Amino acid sequence: MTAPIRLGTRRSALAQAQSGHVADALAKIIGRPVELVPIVSEGDTNRASLSEIGGTGVFANRLREALVAGECDILVHSLKDLPTAQPDGLVIAATPVREDARDVAITRDGTPLHELPAGARVGTGAPRRIAQVRRRAPHAEAVDIRGNVDSRLERVASGELDAVILAAAGLSRLGADSALHREHLGLAEWPTAPGQGSLAVETLSDAPADLLAALAELDDEDTRIAVTVERAILAGLEAGCQAPMAAHAQVTGDSIRIRSVVYEPAGTGRIGIDVTESLNGGYIRRNGSGNGASAADGADPMRAIRDIGMSAAHRLLEQGAADLLPRE
Question: How many domains, the chain?
């Protein structure tokens, strides 16, 4: 019997759900069973605020150790949780089609976020979302929370919180259903974290050729280009995953529109850009895609795409973004 491919994943319901989607798709392509290998990360056991324990790599490090140690063959991450520096010997072999990148405000009665009354309590654990809540609902109180999706929804249903901010993609992948009201927050005024809504399938750079080829079939070109730009902005700002910044890019034809904002943590100020850049008449699209596992002679086909993101970061820094960011 052909040995199954072992997919390492966090133990949370969301991680298992999104990993299950990848496992099913990969099994159909490669013709082998794919089994989930649950792995406990520091982010799953340490209940302190993410801003206290440091968000960069807190969910990824243990999984990557398991991959290198041979405990699994591939990993599935939420891309927004990954540090921008790629470890030697590992490669993001696929970025499947991105889900909805928006955030969602969840309330009991459908009151829009900006209309919440003074003293209303809005739960979120991300410094970027906290800053955005303080701008959108200045009379409300942003409450730093942790916990899975169900526990956060319950805190709204019980009245402990008046609203929580969650990722639309997570709700979709979980199939979460409740009587609570959802307000989708538009990306123009509420851009989200670099990579939000996207998954990263990671494996060893020298993984078997048939596995790399199968994973390449899961890769979506537009998603990879967009998230590469977003993560290059984050890297260019030298800020960690928990920085109060947002970046969202969208590919349309041979151009890419980039919205990025750096927030003052109290929500009182921000610096942003909204620009559209050419993908060089389609040259980057034709030559810059690929999962990075097949580049020959050290070539880096994504360099031109990263340069677009680095240029956007430079524009933000020229406007004073560094003064708003904690240094990593």
Answer: 2
Closest CA to 125 of 187, 94, 157, 167: 167
Q: Which domain holds residue 301?
A: 5-99+193-323
pTM equals 0.88
120 & 181 share domain:
yes
**Tokens at 185, concatenated:** 């927050």
Angle between helices 303-318 and 221-236 (to 10 degrees): 40
Q: What's the rounded Cα separation, in Å, for the pair 69 and 89? A: 12
Last residue of a domain, one of 144, 165, 185: 185
Residues 78 and 177 in one domain: no
> 209 and 305: one domain?
yes
Task: Please indicate, yes or no, if residue 328 is contained in any of the structural domains.
Answer: no
- Which of 24, 44, 73, 81 is catalytic? The answer is 81
Other beta carbons within 10 Å of 183: 17
Tokens read off for 179: 């009587």
For strands 270-278 and 255-263, give the pairing.
antiparallel
Distance CA 148, CA 151 (A): 5
How many CB atoms are closer than 10 A to CB 282?
12
Instruction: Read off the pLDDT of residues 169-217 as tens digits, 9 standing for 90 and up.
Output: 999 888 767 789 999 999 999 999 999 999 999 999 999 999 999 999 9
Residue 131: CATH number of its domain:
3.40.190.10
Question: Is 81 a catalytic site residue?
Answer: yes
Residue written as token pair 């949780």:
81
Q: In this structure, which amino acid lies at residue 274?
A: D
